[in-house]
Amino acid sequence: MKRFPVIGVLCVGAAFGLAACSDDSSPSEEATKAAAEVCSGLTELRADNAKLKALDPAVATKDQVKDAYQAVREDWDGVKDNLGKLKDAERSALQSASDDLKKAYEDLPGDTTGKDALTKLQPQIQKLEETSAAAATGLQC
């Protein structure tokens, strides 16, 4: 009779051991992975936004502004996929800053020079820089 509880414990232990070896990750591991992806994406977003900000208005072409802007938009799309891990306030602020930059860029007249484009986009670029830095700090990236 004493062997039955011992065998039961061994079977349960073996089942837990096999489950631990499976490819399924725990919610904690998934959250850590998602946070790392958000941090990585925010780093890329901040770097590309800094490149956009650093363009020299005296010599930047509209194509250079367009390429830098598109890099920022692509980074934002990547970050957006993992935003479930961000606090609602950070998510809302980032969404607003990104949308403001998008709207300002799309509102540029077709004949806008690189200099004029950068001058008009500067407030939105600055806002995105500040909100992405705050989000990265909040996540301890």
Structural class: mainly alpha
Q: Describe the global form.
A: elongated
Biggest sheet, in brief? none
Rounded mean pLDDT score: 79
| Secondary-structure element series | HHHHH
Oligomer: single chain
How many beta-strand segments? 0
Query: Termini distance?
Result: 56 Å
**Global Rg:** 24 Å
What share of the residues does DSSP label as strand, in percent?
under 5%
Q: Low-confidence spans: pLDDT under 50, at least 5 residues?
A: 1-22
Number of distinct helices: 5
Task: Describe what is shown at a glance.
The chain contains five helices and no strands. With 141 residues, the chain is mostly helical.
List keywords for this structure.
single chain, 141 residues, mainly alpha, 0% strand, disordered N terminus
